[in-house]
Amino acid sequence: MREVFARPKVVFSACLNFEPVRYNGQLIKDEFCEKLSKYVEVVKVCPEVGAGFGVPRPAIKIVFQNDEKRVIQTDMGRDVTDSIKMFSEVFLNQLKEIDGFVLKKKSPSCAIADAVAYKILRGEKIVIKTVGIFAELAMEKFPNSAFADEGRLKSYWIREHFLTRIFSSADLKSRSFNKLELVQFHESYKYLLMAHSPSLLRQLGKLVSNLKVAPMKEIVSLYSELFNKAFSVKPTLGKHYNVLQHLYSHLKEKLREKEQENMSRLLEEFSRGKISLKTIREVFRIYALNFEDNYLLNQKYLNPYPRELESEK
Ligand code: SF4
Questions:
Q1: How far is the CA of 75 from the centre of ligand 1 (A)?
Q2: Mean pLDDT score of the chain, rounded to an integer?
Q3: pLDDT band at 132, cuts 50/70/90?
Q4: Residue at 4 is within a domain
């Protein structure tokens, strides 16, 4: 089982575990970000400090003025939108090949969806949720990267999706394929792709089964595009169950009757959410190792990212 992982390049809000740069001089402690940072290439940023505001500094809020998003300092009412945008554009323009962003929730600069914003609608002041000003520019510049905040990453399936996405994206980028290597790479991702998008898995399969139709550079470029698109699709319990059934079919004839019964029970419990993906993956990993089953041992589905980042829920 391949335990070496390419290091994804991940941009973090600097106040998440790295530097006490919040407007009030605080640092947000986050256990998962701390663990993740050991396995990725960290790029940290505080767009507000980068824009020249010190620590501590006045808090800011988002206000819509004629449908335009503006960022205003809450004490003096100074509009600081242009300074933050200017820094963000320069910062984002010098970045290359970013696999993911982990940004601070609710921040007027960094939030990916839940910054509080004020708007006047039919003469009344209303409160809405929106994307922070830095996050918005980052999403425009890196539409294929994975975005999450420290709050969403506490949810099991969001974390699972985020991790799978950044590690598969980094793995793809770390390769320079010849024909055989591309076929082998695709074979190893077959079931992980199936858990995300069976239809894109079929398209990718067709592409690698006919490598004579175009120069290798073009094929790899199209393969990369479809591969990243597939991993942008959220996996579901049902799709995972389908993949596990395929893996079980592969293994079944090697199992004794009692083991088959036990495996059927585990799969059924998984489908009802009674046992975790981590547990069921571990069972398959153990069988794959015991039987020295190289086909299963090579499947990224059983080993999509470093074990320390796996959790029960
Ligand atoms: S949320 Fe963003 S802008 Fe605010 S302190 Fe953290 S990194 Fe800086």
A1: 18
A2: 96
A3: very high
A4: no
Q: How far apart are CA 181 and CA 191, in angstroms?
A: 17
Residue 108 lies in a domain: yes
- Ligand 1 centroid to Cα of residue 234, in Å, is 28
Tokens read off for 95? 């970045």
183 and 193 fall within a common domain: yes
- Mean pLDDT for 87-94 is 98
Domain assignment of residue 164, given as a range: 156-313
- Nearest-CA residue for ligand 1 atom 4 is 22
Minimal CA–CA distance to 221: which of 177, 276, 273, 185? 177
Is residue 169 situated within a structural domain?
Answer: yes
pLDDT of residue 2: 57
pLDDT score of 290 more than 90: yes
Could you report the per-residue pLDDT of 238-258, keeping only the tens digit for each? 999 999 999 999 999 999 999
Question: Ligand 1 centroid to 23 CA: how many Å?
Answer: 8
List C-alpha distances in Å: 192 to 151, 198, 274: 25, 10, 21
Give the chain's domain count: 2
Instruction: Give Cα 12 distance to the centre of its chain.
Output: 13
The region, left, alpha or beta by phi > 0 then psi within -120 to 50, assigned to residue 52 is left
Final residue belonging to a domain, choices 126, 154, 182: 154
Q: What integer pLDDT is reported at residue 1 of this predicted model?
A: 59
